[in-house]
Amino acid sequence: MDRPIAYDKLAREDRFMRMRARRVAELKLEQGLPPFPDLARRESIKERVHGILVGELQAMEGAGRTVYDFPDAPWEFTLDMARQVWDESRHVEIYIQLLEHLGGYAGEFPETTILWRCACAEDAAARVAGVNRGLEGLACDVFNQLIHIARKIGDPIIEHAVDFVLADEITHVRMGSKWLNELTKGDPERRKRAIEFQETIDERFNLGGLRREGDHEEVPISIATEARRLAGFTDEEIARLIKTTQRSPVY
Amino acid sequence: MAQRLAGYLSVDESAKRIRHYRYAEERMMRVMGGWIALTPELPAKLLLGRQVWDCAQHADLWGKRLPELRSRAQVSEPANDLFVRFMDLLESPEEFGQTAERLVGIYRVLKPHLLAVYEHHLAHANAVYEPPTRRILQRTIEDERRHIAAGRAILTHRLQRAGAHRRADAWQGRLEALLVEAGGVTGEGIAHLAAPEISADPDGVTGGLVELEKPVGRWPLPPDLEAAVEAHARNVERRDLAAAGEDLSPDIRAAGTELYRSLLARGPDRHEVVGVAKLGAHRLIKLRLDGPDGAVILASRWAQREGHWRVAEVEVVRIEGSNPP
Description:
Chain A has helices at 21-30, 42-69, 75-101, 114-118, 124-153, 156-183, 188-204, 225-230, 235-245; strands at residues 211-212, 221-222. By secondary structure, chain A is mainly α.
């Protein structure tokens, strides 16, 4: 197998429809729809849950590739990534069932592959910075908000299941912070490149200002300050993220 | 009394044996992890995803045992070059249509072999001075039994396609021949090993995974769109390029008709809707068109134009030969 594989080798059953994120957003805007599903209606919650499902799928695939792609990385790093594969596989099963709980099915909405592209970074340090800190950090924001909405609409199934997933994601962010430091020890250039990669991902997933600081019910994606602190993000990093959300390019 | 202290392997031999086990477990774990992205079917994808961590723990347990046997921690060492070649061959099926080969390699060849070796080792390891090794063997044996049962349940489901059994058996034969040549994971031969007994998915854990592959049933399409898609597919099957072109939105008609011209040349005579996704009021529809030369999987976006459903975008997702790898 190639190390890494070309990003377009990502294999899917035929029921999944793959489309560029930008194209999905364009087609929604053309129809007068928000580019990213809100959490105001059960149908849009279902679409958001579907987006999370394919994200978890790609996270499992990305962690699996990290296990394969870096045979010379420290063994403990491989162990952490293998553990993450197992965690993500559970998340996929959880979100498939949550989707069914909401009356949906896998493949009901198009799949975009931004997350997978980020998981194809050639440097292990960039991959953990981008995926474990950037994307899993985003997952903390999205899941924290979903738990709040589930509680509000009286859906304990979603609330409890997603709460366990959030606990795992916090662990994955911690792994990312640990390995970003370990893998770049004594190599400030590599660390700088990895952090820059994470920042491009943070910026991209600010979704043109959809992610920002604010009440769960007021903003499309609210930044989970507390969960991020638990995950090991510093106050300075959280403040910087909030600041970048105020100047993101239009998605 | 002295017989209770009779030995099977010396300390150095034990360490060497464990480095061989670790090589197999570590490499298998990495290969399974790498395959997840290359495997399209959800049940097989999740099966691999569930087990990578167990395999990593096996490699870790063996690696931690090594310094207790006067050897360096976490070292993997293949028994010989032939075993490396065996693992290279096992790793090689990475194409979209080779899930069966991937599963055969792991669940019919490598894991059953490791299980047989571990059981033999456990039966002979000294109960007085080798409990640390025996504990690891007991754990790995239990996991391998569970993994094989789950893997075989998924594989059985996968092999229901015509001709799949023959291909799987042939692949298994190639791998087993090389494994025998290598003398197994230890390099010491495999003739003395008893074939392990595997019960059929004792915990029923794979039931939920196989369920994931169940068809959606009737796709949730509005009746007028369902009729339009059906009529469009029939136009393609009749090789009526003009009618198929009329189903396309005017802005893509010229380019789309060219694409259909090449499709029609393949002589598709059967069709099936294999995916339906919502994009606002638009619908993304995946059609599988089968013919004598194989299948074309076509993705199209349907939107309403002046009261009629029309194809607004279309692309070929994949072409399969009549004898997929």
